Amino acid sequence: MIADREPCARFVAVGDSFSEGLNDEIRGDGRYRGWADRVAELLVARQNIEQLSYANLAIRGRLMRQIRDEQVPQAQALKPDLVTVGAGVNDALRRTFSLDVVCTDLENSVRDLTVAGSHVLLFAYGDPSRRSKALGRVADRMRAYRTATLDIAAAYGCTVVDFWGIALYDDTRLWSADRLHLSPLGHRLTAEAVMDALGLGGEAWRSPMSDPPRPGWSRRRGSDAAWFLAHAGPWITRRIRGVSSGAGVVAKDPTYRTVHKAGASLPPLP
């Protein structure tokens, strides 16, 4: 864990929309903030260092092979102390998903990053069937991918954030309107999960929050219809057309920017 090493001074995030930070608060430059931005700030605060170099190479819609070929070499060139790799869900949602291909690309990415001297943090995602029937169709794929991720992490000495079975992430308040990306609260708690895995935890993130009032049947059905029209339908259309959500999108922080200690203050969790 990072807590057992010299302070982390260079941090790079690679991956897809999860690591890019979709649907979090908007930064001053018009891009989403995201849990990785929050981790950079927390690393400064909790390691008690003055500043940190941070880059985020993640781009929405990217598949594991694209991350392996495009982002990993960029990350290696930056020589980071810590690299987070958050990817694989887009692959699992594809009709042509191959667990062997995705896991081979993930292992090759981890191997190259660790050989270059970086400590790697991976994510084992949660069971989608716990909160969505639509996403539940890929639950077996995500379960198998989690198992492989844990094996790769053990083989290469990686840190893992494991969301499988964490009831908190079944809470709709952690997810945005599209039901696929985290909400600002979800990004905030994910940043805490990363810090906890690194041995730099602060505020608790696993405990379920108090239950909100459950909407009635008609309201739930209306919400489902609105979700399909606004999010599921356009996603299906893009898949049919073969157009990625990341077409034309570039990494928000392709080179290091400096995160100063003054920017690390966050209000308490609700």
Walk me through what this model shows.
With 270 residues, the protein is α/β, with parallel strands linked by helices. It has one domain: Rossmann fold (3-Layer(aba) Sandwich). Helix content is 41%, strand content 13%. Strand 4 (119-124), helix 6 (139-156) and strand 5 form a beta-alpha-beta unit. Helix 2 packs across helix 7, helix 3 runs parallel beside helix 5 and helix 5 (99-115) packs parallel to helix 6. 36% of the residues are buried. Mean pLDDT is 86; it is low at 263-270.
What descriptive keywords fit this protein?
disordered C terminus, 13% strand, 8 helices, 270 residues, 6-stranded mixed β-sheet, globular, Rossmann fold, alpha/beta
Show the helix and strand layout.
Elements: E1 10-15, H1 17-20, H2 34-47, E2 51-56, H3 64-78, E3 82-86, H4 89-92, H5 99-115, E4 119-124, H6 139-156, E5 159-162, H7 184-197, H8 217-241, E6 253-260
Parallel strand pairs: 1-2, 1-3, 3-4, 4-5
Antiparallel strand pairs: 2-6
